[in-house]
Amino acid sequence: MGKFLHSFFTPLGFRRAVPQVWDGFQTNVRMMVIAELLVLVFALVVAIVRGLPGRPTFPLRALAIAYTDFFRGTPLILVAYVWGLGIPALQIAVVSNQSLVTYGIISLTLVYTAYVTEVYRAGIESVHPSQRMAARSLGLTYAQTLRHVVLPQAIRRVIPPLLNDFIGLQKDTAIITVIGVTDALAQAGFYSNDFFVYAGYTVAAVFFVILTIPFARFTDHLIKERERRERAQLV
Amino acid sequence: MNGAGEHFVRVEGLTKRFGDLVVLRSIDLTVDLHQVVCMIGASGSGKSTLLRCLNLLEQAEEGTIVVDGQTITNGPVDVNALRRKIGIVFQAFNLFPHMTVMQNITLAPRKTRGLTRAQAQTQARDLLARIGLLEKADEYPDRLSGGQQQRVAIARALAMSPTLMLLDEITSALDPQLVSEVLNLVRELANTGMTMIIATHEMSFAREIADRVCFLDEGVILEEGTPEQIFTEPREQRTREFLARIIEAGRL
Fold first, then answer.
1. Cβ–Cβ under 8 Å, residues B84 and B113
2. Between β-strands B36-40 and B62-67, what pairing exists: parallel, antiparallel or unpaired?
3. Rg of chain B, C-alpha, whole Å
4. Nearest CA-CA distance, residue B88 and chain A, Å
5. Does residue B94 sit at the A interface (CB-CB below 8 Å)?
6. Within a 13 Å sphere around the CA of B91, how many CA atoms are in the beta-carbon half?
7. Alpha-carbon distance B197 to B6, whole Å?
8. Which of B207, B200, B212, B210 is nearest to B167 (CA)?
9. How many CB atoms are located within 10 Å of the residue B16 CB?
């Protein structure tokens, strides 16, 4: 027990570990913020493509389905290896010369876009068909109906599950460490190698938790708010 | 423009199926400008489907529909342009819940008729004053009663300045005490000469407002005539039975 405490919770260990792990953690935050912004946009595009009407758009729809099926089924760590180790080895102009952080962001974006597409799609399908019918009957086009009537309602409904996926994404930035990005986890590793204590890992864990708590509480708040509104409507 | 003797709406041999189910069988119907035509008949007799075929929310399999001199059942049709001429109001209101009353009314005029926000709002305020709901302009639909929501839905349709209004059982989802406020509005529309096709279960209202009443039975217009004739001396047995049931239920 004493050995455990010494390993993970030495006060002296903390003092030195915090700045070092913080240094790496900033990389996690950077990957997370950029990937989340990209995912928000790309997933919406893929979800819209999947829902396009008519026969001529079938190839596009098929492509979108293939994409989501593939990247929802592939482990992130594998995607990260392909981008972080495989692509640079191919020595393709520009594509092979990016930083490891960039490859990390690409991997996170590819995998999480597939998840979030499904979230958006569920939201779009939850909007009652009579809403589309009402909009179309006013002479709005398909695109106008989507933009002004369907998406605003859909997106509002999916914010809680979407934030939930983002919590997953935040934690998974730590996986990108396997391709050699100097993130919080890597710094914690360096620290434990240097000082033979694991306080660095404890510090990293605390950083990740602190980052996700506001998200989790905000999600709870939104869900409660919705329940309150829906009850009010029933009265 | 309509030539002399040309009807504003002309339906010929319209047939509509959902899978094996024939919902409309060879419907013939004409409606002239400024006419009010009421469709009566049991639920499932095809009233709603007929209305939805007229603005192409449903596609008919056979037959011809001509609106304002333009054949809409085959050939290239600008669906959106057609729908701007034809307003429809639904049983379930179908207001946009994420928009205020004002936004509900101004959306389509701004996006499809190129009105500026200010122009659309001026027009919307006129309409809201007309339906007596000006003070609700900034409320969301869930803050309004059913009757108020339905009046807003009518205003939303009117904001497109349609030539023809289709009313699809617009009082069927309302509490009885809220029905009259909506019917009063429709009455006023009729007085201004609005062309309307109305599917309804409100028989006394149909009798009062209609120039012509059509009785639909299993997808067929079984009988058509003046309200006087349909309600006092129906020719068809099925019409008599239908009206007898309505009277029995105390709704005429």
1. yes
2. unpaired
3. 18
4. 7
5. yes
6. 13
7. 18
8. B200
9. 22
Q: What per-residue confidence (pLDDT) applies to A197?
A: 72
CA angle (B216, B219, B221) in 5-degree steps? 40
- B252: exposed, middle or buried (C-beta count within 10 Å: 0-12, 13-18, 19+)? middle
Contact call for residues B26 and B70 (beta carbons, < 8 A): no
Question: Please, is B3 exposed, middle or buried when counting C-beta atoms within 10 Å of its C-beta (0-12, 13-18, 19+)?
Answer: exposed
Nearest CA in chain B to A156: B98
Query: In 3D, which of A222, A179, A198, A220 has the Cα closest to residue A88?
Result: A179
- % chain A with pLDDT above 90: 53
For residue range A153-185, list pLDDT tens digits in order: 999 889 889 998 999 999 999 999 888 888 888
Q: What is the residue-wise DSSP string for A151-186?
A: HHHHHHHHHHHHHHHHHHHHHHGGGGGGGT---HHH
ipTM of the complex: 0.90
- Exposed, middle or buried, B59 (CB in 10 Å: 0-12/13-18/19+)? exposed
3-state helix, strand, coil in chain B (%, to 5): 40, 25, 35
Quote the pLDDT of residue A235. 44
Cβ of A138 within 8 Å of Cβ of B81? The answer is no
- Residue-wise DSSP of B21-44: EEEEEEEEEEE-TT-EEEEE--TT
Average pLDDT of span B80-108? 95
Is the separation of the CB atoms in A39 and A194 below 8 Å?
no
Average pLDDT over chain A, rounded to an integer:
88
CA distances A233 to A54, B47, B99, B178, Å, are 36, 30, 15, 18
Question: Is the pLDDT confidence value at A233 over 70?
Answer: no
Half-sphere exposure of A18 (CA within 13 A, CB side): 7
Please tell me the distance from the alpha carbon of residue A159 to that of residue B103, in angstroms, as a whole number.
23
Is A130 in contact with B111 (Cβ distance < 8 A)? no
Query: Which chain B residue's Cα is nearest to A230?
Result: B142
* One-letter amino acid of A11: P
CA distances from A226 to A41, A66, A137, B29 (A): 24, 34, 29, 47
Question: Rounded to the nearest 5°, which phi and psi values hold at A91?
Answer: 55, 45
Q: What is the pTM of this model?
A: 0.87
Let me know: does A107 contact A173? Beta carbons within 8 Å: no
Amino acid type, A207:
F
A104 within 8 A of A80, measured Cβ to Cβ: yes
The secondary element (H helix, E strand) that includes residue A102 is helix A100-126
Residue B108: list chain A partners with CB under 8 A.
135, 138-140
